Amino acid sequence: MVMLNFITLNMFNIRVTLFFLITIVYIIDQTDSGAVQLNQQNLDMTLASNELVFINFYADWCRFSNLLMPIFDESADAIAKEFPEAGKVVLGKVDCDKESSISSRFHITKYPTLKVIRNGQPAKREYRGQRSVEAFTKFIKDQLEDPVKEFKELRELGALESDKRIIIGYFDRRDQPEYSIFRRVATNLKDDCQFHVGFEEASREMHPAGQPIIVFRPNKLRSNDLDETYPGGLNNFDELHIWASEKCVPLVREITFENAEELTEEGLPFLILFHHTDDKDSIKKFNEIVQNELLSEKQSINFLTADGKKFAHPLHHLGKSEKDLPLIAIDSFRHMYLFPNYKDIEIPGKLKQFLKDLYSGKLHREFHYGPDSDTNTEQDITTPPVSTFKKLAPSKNRYTLLDKDEL
Question: CA 373 to CA 376: how far, in whole Å?
């Protein structure tokens, strides 16, 4: 009888213990739900141990941050269920007031800012899409799709889209270490280039045995450049990543309503070619001149092309319309300045001088007072057209801007 009571008591104690353990686990799970709180202690480890980290940079006092937080936390839970395997994806959040060094490291200029880190490398573009659980979940699914498409026969390459920037890899087999590096680069640059690969018979004609080759194919509708073979070592991730980045992110970009906010937020003035929708020749000519004459200016100006039909509003501010295309203008985010004669781009140094006149203030001065040689004569003071692209910068109705005068 005593033995039976002892066993019964032990079983009771075990049940109580199990109950408390289950309760503790449940409480931990509840408090640990949502996005992972990132700080100086766990940030680098989180970035290094996950293929994709999606971070919400916020401030507690920011109204827009507070509106986003419950949505982002709910999204973190949904995505954790969708991709439960360790090392795949993590949604994290950074309190920028408490972690100011992290905020500075990632160049945060507004709250909330949503950034993607792939294989430890920050993506060039932050997330600017819809802020909902469904949109975040779809975005993460898209990001985790295999960035490399395999071709089985060389003739398939002839059918690739001619208006895309493409990197093609020719490998002996999938388990080569070089292919692993190629795929990591593709993961980081999937938003800027298409990546294609062929193995064994599909690519045997294109490279010596045991010597993989990687080739960049430019956008044929915007450039006259030829295909270019990667000249570096295929066992060095950083070296290949730098080369591919330079190829995939073009010097001359097309501005659209989808990327205008991103481009404007970079803070550099625009040198813009406005062209007819179907005019590819002027785009190629502009690309060629920028490459040959203006490469040294890329840290000071953004080189862009714009469909004059879609961007009729800036043309109207310049006193121009579609019938005046193609034309070139500068938007300094304060004023717009028209390149006087489009045909003069053929004159070496003419377009570069136009940029120098912007930097020196000459464009602004001459618009007000006429040519410098006439500054001593009486002139009617005029005002250059105001910037129209500044209005496409991040909206104050969606973000708390940290530097109101950044543009």
Answer: 8
**Residues 272-296 as b or e (16 or more Cβ within 10 Å = b):** bbbbeeebeebbbebbebbbebbee
- By the 8 A CB rule, do 195 and 169 touch? yes
**pTM, 2 dp:** 0.77
pLDDT in tens, 192-246: 999 999 999 999 999 999 999 999 999 998 998 999 999 999 999 999 999 999 9
Tell the burial category of 196 from Cβ atoms under 10 Å away from its Cβ (0-12, 13-18, 19+).
buried
Sign of the C-alpha dihedral computed for residues 176, 181, 186 and 192 taken in this order: negative
Query: Is the bond leading into 326 cis (omega within 30 degrees of zero)?
Result: yes
Contact 176, 210 (CB under 8 A): no
| CA-based R_g, the chain, Å | 28
Nearest to 91 by CA among 119, 117, 125, 129: 117
- Give Cα separations from 213 to 104, 204, 218, 228, 343 (angstroms): 39, 11, 17, 11, 41
